[in-house]
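Suppose a colleague, Dr. K., hands you the sequence of a protein chain of 149 amino acids and asks what its three-dimensional shape might be. Before reaching for any lab equipment, you can write down a predicted structure in token form. Begin with the sequence itself:
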Amino acid sequence: MSDVVTVRALAPTDFAQWLPLWVGYHRFYGRAIADDVTRTTWGRFFDAYEPVNALVAEADGGLIGFAHTILHRNTATLAPVCYMQDLFVAEAARGKGVGRALIEAVYERAKAAGSPRVYWMTHETNATAQALYDQVAERSGFIQYRKAL
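The predicted structure, expressed as tokens, is then:
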């Protein structure tokens, strides 16, 4: 892999390269993703009425990572906040600054959109990611609770 990494907006022509990363992301977390969810998510990236966005990292003409974000309203600020829902870097590209580059690009996009904050979650066992996250953000101290319905 080249040391030159470009972060850019996802393009409609990226599907064939994005899909293996998407599958790898879900495999990393031990889950399978339904085809209709994949197709719907892909479509949302290009729907002007959806608050879902995607950035990709590219090196040597191929995609090596992505960050998916959602701008949403909240009750603590007037401007929408940015939730980075998914961040993934291909295994061969990890440890080379790709994740940091994607996060920094998310920060830039969120700031340009007027967002006062970017936040995300990771699994408590993902120590490698947390080592990076501790360098580029601060832990909120909140614990997530959820219930499947």
